Amino acid sequence: MASLLRRTGGTLFSRSPSVLLTRTTIKPATRQFTVSACCRTARADINKTQDTEQPATFRHHATPDTILNKALTLVPQHGWTIESITKAAESMGYPTIIHGMFPNGGADLIDYFLKDCLNRLPLELEGRMEGLGTQEKIRLGTLTRLGMIAPYIDRWPEALAVMGQPSNVPMALNHLAKIVDEIWHLAGDKSADMNWYTKRASLAVIYTTTELYMTTDKTPNYEATQKFLDRRFEDAATLGKATNEVLQIAEFGAKSVFGIITSKGFRL
């Protein structure tokens, strides 16, 4: 991980005070899922089955994103795997060789999902942060983003296992950086000094630990996860307290992910 940090210039964040993220527009089929009264989230409609008989014009013009969007509905049955992608393609009238479009298999599906979540986050939070203090905004943004994995929570340890594989760690860290950067951005952060980095490093650790805890939470509406998150904010004292945590994020992510996956009995 140290070498990864050196190659990226010592920072994990893609949006510096002078560089903004470039977003793509991905609009998957979603429906609302409530984590708490103050935390509305959109979720993929995993319970509906789309008609496998698609018009010829649709079959011939489907994009990779269209196939991946369909594959998300199959994740509960087949996991974050190439099988979900292949079955999605077949249901849309494509042959099984279509999986050649996705050389990274399940990692491509996870990458698509994480990009989609990033694009949906500002839409989910639109108009909901007005009148809130900074920490309340960060809490709401964090819970809203965590709520997006709720439809896949039983399979999310598998996604963490895929992201924890050496070849996928850069992708995983990149997405983590974008998540915390976007939450701070939506909360109105305008810092332009070292505080910009420490705020995001601190939130990255808080987000990652809470996400891991959520995979074990069996309480109604993820109440235990919300309390866990609040304790992490209290432990941090301020969101800018992350002196030595920047270099620990990569190590923490890899060790924690592999630890929880092994404890759950999933094979890597």
Automatic annotation (TrEMBL):
One example of a Gene Ontology biological process annotation? ubiquinone biosynthetic process
Q: What is this protein called?
A: Ubiquinone biosynthesis protein
> Can you say where in the cell this protein is located?
Mitochondrion
The main location class comes to: mitochondrion
State the pathway, as annotated in the record.
Cofactor biosynthesis; ubiquinone biosynthesis
Record the organism: Modicella reniformis
Q: Report the GO terms under cellular component.
A: mitochondrial inner membrane
GO terms assigned for molecular function: lipid binding
What does it do?
Membrane-associated protein that warps the membrane surface to access and bind aromatic isoprenes with high specificity, including ubiquinone (CoQ) isoprene intermediates and presents them directly to Coq7, therefore facilitating the Coq7-mediated hydroxylase step. Participates in the biosynthesis of coenzyme Q, also named ubiquinone, an essential lipid-soluble electron transporter for aerobic cellular respiration.
List residues of the COQ9 C-terminal domain: 169-239
Its family remark reads: Belongs to the COQ9 family.
Task: Name the gene.
Answer: COQ9
NCBIfam families with a match to the protein in the record: diverge_rpsU
InterPro entries, per database record: COQ9_C, Ubiq_biosynth_COQ9
Keyword set, alphabetical order: Lipid-binding, Mitochondrion, Transit peptide, Ubiquinone, Ubiquinone biosynthesis
